[in-house]
Amino acid sequence: MDIEFIAAGAAIPARTALARVVFEGEVQAGAVAQAVAASRFTGAKGQTLDILAPQGTDAARLVLVGAGKKDAFGALGAEHAAASAYAAVKASGLETLRIEGIEGAGLAAHAALGVRLASYRFDKYRTKEPADKKPSIVKTLVVTDAADDALGAFADMAALANAVSFTRDLVSEPPNVLFPAEFARRVKALESLGLEIEILGEAEMKALGMGSLLAVGQGSIRESQLVVIRWNGAADKSAQPVAFVGKGVCFDTGGISLKPADGMEDMKWDMGGAGAVAGLMHVLAGRKAKVNAVGVLGLVENMPDGNSYRPGDVLTSMSGQTIEVVNTDAEGRLVLADALWYCNDRFKPRFMVDLATLTGAIIISLGNDLAGCFSNDDALAEDLLAAARAEEEGLWRMPMPDAYNKQIDSMIADMKNTGGRPGGSITAALFLKRFVGDTPWAHLDIASTAWKKPSAVPTSPDGATGYGIRLLNRLVRDRYEG
């Protein structure tokens, strides 16, 4: 999507859809007022009204976009209004969208971000789609009285949009295309942004003692990978980094504990946590964040095979702790156990946040609009919740009562890999807590938010969301850059 910021008096190109942002109670005039009076359009947030372009404008059509109450309109309101405008005209056959009625350079930049995010489309495998089914809008003009300032403000937002698109692409790819080595290859290409990338194969992980992670992938013909991403943007390159760890199960059959066939195709997005961490590192580098940061991705496939790990196996993790496997479909925590320990042991970070599509239980607990936050540190948890509120990425803190640890006690090993159905998300988090030591840590269970179909958020089309990138980018920007 080509984005430009223009002055109000700029000529309207041919084949342009004009979108006008309207607030509740705002009085219209002439033919527009007549159209509004004949409809149920009130200017409420999310409403749109498509009408014939009135005389005196060169636009081919006019869309009114409700933005709610003016005194409550902010950055996210501008994004959602612009995204709603795009959705209303994207398949119109017109080529240009012009957005009017958003005041201030900062809000104009957010409007442009809204269109960038809303216009994402994963269509690389559609070979016979009719032209009239494809979006036609290829350019957006945002009207502002400070075009240069808006363009400057948009620079960091463009880096965010690029990162979200990168993650959405990863999560959307089919599993025969995006397996661990291919995922690692795509991340390796981010060195062009200034990131430092290391890729560890199975031999290196075996030498490190990563028996927990390696067990998950041993039934696949695809080699497991551990990807380390570093961004050294702080003035002091030796300063303690912040760290993010992602679960990257590129496809999850459940292994020997095979999942039901219905819906198994969705398990291509079981690497959404690793995708989000890769996207976060992408945006930190893209906007030259003044922080040292580390991302660690544990990439595996969980497949049934004669060499698969089994219920009843006992694994030795990199930490030395032993794990009895009681269900091979509780695999993500086994990947994260070694990835978290490795990250903490090697980098001694200020904190660690892991992201994982870890449990179906979090969907039962919180529905489809909230991720679960589990943490051993109140200050970190509050910072994450504040960032989530600011970016409207739903997040809810969950408890981790010590008493629930007994559910993952094992008769023959230090622990077992699942505590059963009761409190399933909680016992999964308590399992992970055993691999972080005293380092401030938070676990974000994003099984409910990494993929939406249908999506009710105008900036996030159906499918991969890129959840977590915005809130973690905000966390870093607001709390840790300096």
The total count of strands amounts to: 19
Strand content: 15-25%
Low-confidence stretches: none
Query: Order of strands across the widest beta sheet?
Result: 7-8-10-9-13-17-14-15
Query: What's the N-to-C terminus distance?
Result: 33 Å
| Mean of residue pLDDT values | 97
What is the rounded Rg? 24 Å
Largest beta-sheet details: 8 strands, mixed
What does this structure look like?
- The protein is of the alpha/beta class.
- Helix 3 runs parallel beside helix 4, helix 8 (272-286) crosses helix 13 (469-479) and helix 9 (332-347) packs parallel to helix 12.
- An eight-stranded mixed sheet has the order 7-8-10-9-13-17-14-15, sandwiched between helices. A six-stranded mixed sheet has the order 1-6-5-2-4-3, sandwiched between helices. Strands 11-12-16 form a three-stranded mixed sheet.
- Strand 14, helix 11 and strand 15 form a beta-alpha-beta unit.
- The chain is elongated and about 80 Å long.
- 33% of the residues lie in helices and 20% in strands.
- It contains 13 helices and 19 strands.
Write the topology of this structure.
Blueprint lengths: L1 E5 L9 E7 L7 H8 L10 E5 L8 E6 L8 H15 L6 E5 L4 H14 L20 E5 L3 H26 L7 H9 L7 E5 L1 H7 L2 H7 L7 E8 L9 E11 L19 H15 L5 E11 L11 E3 L5 E3 L7 H16 L4 E5 L4 H6 L4 E5 L2 H14 L3 E3 L17 E2 L7 H10 L7 E5 L5 E2 L10 E2 L4 H11 L3
Parallel strand pairs: 1-6, 2-4, 2-5, 5-6, 9-10, 9-13, 12-16, 13-17, 14-15
Antiparallel strand pairs: 3-4, 7-8, 8-10, 11-12, 14-17, 18-19
Helix pairs in contact: 2-3, 3-4, 4-8, 7-9, 8-13, 9-12, 11-13
